[in-house]
Amino acid sequence: MTFKSLKKKINSKKINVGIVGLGYVGLPLAILLAKKGVNVYGFDINKKKIKMLQNQKSYIERINNFDIKILSKKSEVSHSFENISKCDVILICVPTPLKNNNQPDLSCIKKTFSLIKNFLCEDQILILESTSYPGTTREEFVNNLNKKFKLGNNFFIGFSSERINPGSNENSIHNVPKVVGGFSSNCSILVSAFYNLFFQKVVKAKSLEAAEFSKLLENIYRSVNIGFINEMKFIADKMGLDIFEIIRLAKTKPYGFIAYNPGPAIGGHCIPIDPHYLYWKAKKIGITSNFIKIASQTNSKVTNFIESKILKSLKEKNIKINKAKILILGMAYKKNIDDMRESGSVILLKKLLKKNIKNIYWADPHIKKIQFYNKTISNNKINITSKILPSFDIVILMTDHKNFNYSMIERYSKFIIDCRGKFSLSSKIIRA
After folding, report:
1. Whole-angstrom Cα Rg for the chain
2. pLDDT in tens for each of the 432 residues of the chain?
3. Beta partners for residue 18, in sequence order
4. Which of 52, 331, 383, 425 could share a disulfide with 364, CB 3.0–4.6 Å?
5. Would you tell me how many other CB atoms lie within 10 Å of the CB of residue 173?
């Protein structure tokens, strides 16, 4: 098959698409393609996920079973990878976490390549969607396939950053512009043609590295601004001022100011993890990115700030630490989702347990259980009621889910530490 015939096949939608990694990125993408009538082969090493999909059940709260049923009609899912050979386009959507020293961990990408490489064949397009440092696609795929194929002629490689906002746009990702980059001009043309089938707007980068860098820039922009506003929170608190009122006043300016709200920590993948990928890469070429470093350090101080507020409040109330009864509202890292990746609530919970605060309870309409230290502490989950709220010495609002009854929480709680600016300050409500 020539370049022209492959492009024609793409334009006709008569293609098979393989998606490796059916998590927060891969699953919504698979559903989008299935809804557009494209045959999907889904791959994931997690056998539990595969079984749930085969039973037409969703394992992500914000993706409903109806969409999984639509997917099942146009897909075949498996934890083995033989069907890679049947795919015209292969999308890699696997995690890119950090090692303990905050250096990039590409083990999932490397393992994926080892699992699929023997099934790759001519006239396929391989696209990385996982966020990583500039140069990853070239180093991990181009350099490992340039002897087996004539890249740009009989095999094509690209990168396209995912832009999923958890809890917001899983069902409308096609409305978000798609940035793409290709190894060669032919690769860029085919990758663009593919995404043009599903996305309203496709934006071409001049290189793989520019596309990879742009994704990190998007996330680091947010990290730096969140770090800045968290630092402003620390300063305002020291001055006895309410940072949320200050932001409300500042954002009345119609130009030159974009409001960012402080929070109880940064969570998910984009903000706490992705900046370290560029920091590491920049250091490799002799540049220390001070903005990335300072923002990360500042954001990591937030849970310490909240912890100090808790300990200070207990001391002022003459409540012994081992006798204190604490309620954490919200365990997800952001509102209205069931995602606890890098959750500040979990970090705070671990810190309080280390301080010998044993009576810690939590409430979250989206989370069923919490597991760490190889222990599950779902027994401490409660349903918020007017009868149970007065029994807690401190109630901490960490995640502002819309399903919380804030008027009841304010009325019946003895003392509230508000990390989200949901309550008006009073003698029993402070900010953190």
Report:
1. 24
2. 689 889 999 999 999 999 999 999 999 999 999 999 999 999 999 999 999 999 999 999 889 999 999 999 999 999 999 999 999 999 999 999 999 999 999 999 999 999 999 999 999 999 999 999 999 999 999 999 999 999 999 999 999 999 988 888 888 899 999 999 999 999 999 999 999 999 999 999 999 999 999 999 999 999 999 999 999 999 999 999 999 999 999 999 999 999 999 989 889 888 999 999 999 999 999 999 999 999 999 999 999 999 999 999 999 999 999 999 999 999 999 999 999 999 999 999 999 999 999 899 999 999 988 876 655 555 689 999 999 999 999 999 999 999 999 999 999 999 999 999 999 999 999 999
3. 41, 90
4. 331
5. 20
Q: Of the residues 299, 317, 335, which one is the last residue of a structural domain? A: 299
Residues 290 and 329 in one domain: no
The position carrying tokens 């259980």 is: 369
- The residue type at 264: P
- 3-state DSSP: the chain helix, strand, coil percent, rounded to 5? 40, 15, 45
DSSP designation for 292: H
Residue 211, in any domain of the structure: no
SS3 368: coil
The residue behind tokens 């409040």 is 313
Six-digit token pair at 66?
Answer: 């109806």
Closest by Cα among 144, 79, 151 to 106: 144
| Host domain of residue 419 | 301-431
User: What are residue 104's phi and psi, to 5 degrees?
Assistant: -55, 140
